[in-house]
Amino acid sequence: MKNLIFIKLNNDIIKFFLTSILCLSFIIWIIQAVNYLDLVSEDGHSLKVYFSYTLYSLPKIISKILPIIFLISIFFVILKYEANNELIIFWTNGISKIYFINQILKISTLFFFLQLVINLIIVPYSLDKGRSYFRNSDIDLFSSILKEKKFIDTAKNLTIFIEHKDAEKLNNIFIKEEISKNQSQIIVAQSGLVKSDKYSREIILNNGKIIDSKNNNQNIINFDSFTFNLEKYNTNTVTHPKIQEMSSKKLFRCIILINEVKKNEQNLINNQIFFQGCNTEIASTINEEFLKRIASPIFIMLLGLTGGLIITSNKNIKNFRFINFFKFILGVIIIIISEITLSHFNKTLTNMIFYFFPPLIIFITFYFFLLKTQKKNINDN
Question: Model pTM?
Answer without folding.
Answer: 0.70
